[in-house]
């Protein structure tokens, strides 16, 4: 598989926003994208009695709307909590091997050229009694992108997450600071400078223009690099 495992420094930092933006840019460049959020919590019941994974629906739409069944999300829980806690609340468990297999099968059966798997919460969020989000990333086997808030507190949270990923021996390809409309752009840029000063990797700020994500997209299939989608 070619693609990324998208994790965050915390919950509600903009993982889905960034993953959707990356999916849309990749599709515009000619990629077939498989975008999966296998585990989602805080899911309400839909009219058909099935739980709705709102983030997964956004991802599937950004990838082109072709995904169905298990390829449109595996685990949906009502409780807005860590996956382990939400699963235990309904006496369920999460199979990490199944998640990895669905990621592989979705890529192959969908003939996807770019696979995006979005985690839930941050890097150390528990999924089972013995596994956390880092364990899932290892099972999936994709390089990692970290999404972080652009505002106050992001320097510490981002650097700690970077340290944990690198200590775990996984490949970290970059950090995306998700800039929100009410964030001060100058402050966001200052945070980026301080992170880069302490970590020599790629740090991007996603504001309104998602073109900044283009350097994360593998060589386009049919569209020359630099050609606006």
Properties at a glance:
six-stranded parallel β-sheet, 8 strands, 35% helix, 7 helices, 17% strand, alpha/beta, two-stranded parallel ribbon, Rossmann fold
Describe this structure in words.
With 229 residues, the chain is α/β, with parallel strands linked by helices. The protein has a single domain (3-216), classed as Rossmann fold. It contains seven helices and eight strands; from the N terminus they run βαββαβααβαβαβαβ. The chain has helices at 15-28, 54-62, 83-89, 96-109, 133-140, 154-167, 185-198, and strands spanning 3-8, 33-36, 39-40, 75-76, 114-122, 144-149, 172-178, 203-206. Strands 2-5-1-6-7-8 form a six-stranded parallel sheet, with helices on both faces. Strands 3-4 form a two-stranded parallel ribbon. Helix 1 (15-28) packs parallel to helix 2, helix 4 (96-109) runs parallel beside helix 5 (133-140) and helix 6 (154-167) packs parallel to helix 7 (185-198).
Write the layout of secondary structure elements.
Elements: E1 3-8, H1 15-28, E2 33-36, E3 39-40, H2 54-62, E4 75-76, H3 83-89, H4 96-109, E5 114-122, H5 133-140, E6 144-149, H6 154-167, E7 172-178, H7 185-198, E8 203-206
Parallel strand pairs: 1-5, 1-6, 2-5, 3-4, 6-7, 7-8
Helix pairs in contact: 1-2, 4-5, 6-7
């Amino acid at each position: 598989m070619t693609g990324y495992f998208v994790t965050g420094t915390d919950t509600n930092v903009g993982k889905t926003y960034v993953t959707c933006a990356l999916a849309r840019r990749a599709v515009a460049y000619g990629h077939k994208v498989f975008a999966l959020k296998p585990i989602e919590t805080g899911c309400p019941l839909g009219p058909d009695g099935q739980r709705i994974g709102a983030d997964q629906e956004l991802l599937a739409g950004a990838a082109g709307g072709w995904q169905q069944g298990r390829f449109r999300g595996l685990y949906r829980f009502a409780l807005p909590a860590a996956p382990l806690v939400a699963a235990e609340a309904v006496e369920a468990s999460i199979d990490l091997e199944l998640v990895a297999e669905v990621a592989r099968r979705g890529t192959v059966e969908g003939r996807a050229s770019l696979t995006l798997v979005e985690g839930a919460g941050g890097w150390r969020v528990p999924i089972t009694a013995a596994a956390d989000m880092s364990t899932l990333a290892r099972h999936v086997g994709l390089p990692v992108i970290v999404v972080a808030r652009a505002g106050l507190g992001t320097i510490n949270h981002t650097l700690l997450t970077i340290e944990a990923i690198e200590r775990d021996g996984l490949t970290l390809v970059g950090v995306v600071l998700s800039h929100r409309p009410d964030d001060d752009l100058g402050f966001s840029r200052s945070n980026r400078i301080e992170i880069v000063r302490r970590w020599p990797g790629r740090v991007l700020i996603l504001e309104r223009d998602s073109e900044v994500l283009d350097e994360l997209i593998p060589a386009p299939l049919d569209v020359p690099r630099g050609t606006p989608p």
